[in-house]
Amino acid sequence: MIETERLIVRPWRDDDRTAYAAMGQDPALMRYLGPLEARAQTDAAIDRMMAIEAANGYCFWAVERRIDAAFLGFCGLLPGKEPLVGLIEIGWRLGSGYWRQGYALEAAQACLDWGWANLPDPSIHAITVAANKASWGLMERLGMQRLHDQDFDHPGVPDGSPLKRHILYRLDRPTDRPFVNHIT
């Protein structure tokens, strides 16, 4: 569990399912992510995150607000899939009612800090569609740099979709955050 001033970034719980399912039905939220998601899809996504955390010790974790335990969405790290195989990806998705309040930045910075402290990787990556200015704007506020020569067609998005083309950002490990292997 990661705690910030206003947030708790934590493992998923079964009682997150209803709130996450509602997010999957929000057209504003899903605008750059794909079609609206049915309950079975959002449940399967939570199940995948739980399995990824069990296997790796991290995932795109649930995010809740400390003051009232409201479920805000998710933020965290994943072992990258195609085309990020072998890399670490940071990602986030907050309910539209929680946008423009600094929650995504606060959660993402805490997850980056966790990653630098717990993972040996020299960099962390993020992806989005170019039209999602809020997402890549957050990447830039985090200090990430766009890799202009590495735009790609996302293999999980159908051909012909306006969401097919993605852009890639990277943040290199800060020089003041060397990885120290605590396992002896």
Describe the model.
It is a single chain. Strands 1, 2, 3, 4, 5, 6, 7, 8 and 9 form a nine-stranded mixed sheet that branches. The chain starts with a strand and ends in a 12-residue tail after the last strand. The protein is α+β, with helices and mostly antiparallel strands and 184 residues long. Helix 1 (17-24) packs across helix 3 (39-56). The protein is built from five helices and nine strands, in the order ββαααβββαβαβββ. The relative contact order is 0.14. Helices cover 30% and strands 25% of the residues.
Query: What is the makeup of the main sheet?
Result: 9 strands, mixed
- Write down the overall mean pLDDT: 95
How many strands in all? 9
Task: State the order of secondary-structure elements, H for helix, E for strand.
Answer: EEHHHEEEHEHEEE
From the alpha carbons, calculate the radius of gyration and give it in angstroms.
16 Å
**How far is the N terminus from the C terminus?**
23 Å
Structural class: alpha+beta
